[in-house]
Amino acid sequence: MHLAKLTRLKGLEIGTSNATPQALVHLSTLPLEYLQLGEGFELGKVPLPVDRLAVLADFAHLKSLRLIPVKEPFTSETQARIRALLPKVELKFQ
Q1: Are both 2 and 27 inside the same structural domain?
Q2: What is the pLDDT of residues 38-94, one digit of tens each?
Q3: What is the torsion angle, in degrees rounded to the nearest 10, for the CA atoms of residue 73, residue 58, residue 81 and residue 36?
Q4: Which of 3, 14, 74, 90 could form a disulfide with 78 if both were Cys (CB 3.0 to 4.6 A apart)?
Q5: Residue 84: enclosing H or E segment and its boundaries?
Q6: How many domains does the chain have?
Q7: Which of 15, 73, 66, 23 is closest to 39 using CA atoms?
Q8: How far is CA 11 from CA 26, 60, 67, 79, in A?
Q9: What is the pLDDT, as a whole number, of residue 69?
Q10: Domain membership of residue 90 as a residue range
Q11: For residue 65, which of 50, 79, 76 has the smallest C-alpha distance?
């Protein structure tokens, strides 16, 4: 909760083996331009099928976003849909 007081924080890297989703709650109000979540958060293992792509619209404020596919690479069609959702975000699919 002390992180929420850092109202001018632009970048943050967090890595812990004891991470919980609650650890991210206090970051949601920060004006972050860069956030790297390390091991423990396991966000890289969350599947992102086409019917769930709309959740990415919440990240439209980011300057850049790297999406790493769980199993199969993102198809060019899926990449196009994500780019349409996040037109001002520099995207990397790797």
Answers
A1: yes
A2: 666 665 566 788 898 998 898 888 888 888 777 788 899 999 999 999 999 999 988
A3: -30
A4: 74
A5: helix 76-85
A6: 2
A7: 15
A8: 14, 16, 18, 25
A9: 78
A10: 47-94
A11: 79
